Amino acid sequence: MPLPGFGTITNFCWVFDLVISPGSITGNSYFFAAGTSMAAPATAGVAALIIEAHGGSMKPSQVEAKLKQSSDDLGKPGKDEFYGQGFVNALRAIQ
User: Is the dihedral of CA 44, 46, 52, 54 positive or negative?
Assistant: First the structure.
């Protein structure tokens, strides 16, 4: 997959799973972070996009189903210990 300024990536590159987050231990700064503290706000944002794309009103179970159906399944097929239900895909979720 060619990326501007990066060339072609042929190996798994974990750095693309990180997000930039404000704050630091020593003062006002930014840092890269990963994990559930970064996944939860991303998923909440995609859930909001799903609800808006469907007229502003959906049952929680419908939002959950759309999140699962539209996510990128990484690792082993289906839910697994490392990737859980996968990686949210905002574009696929609102189509």
Answer: negative
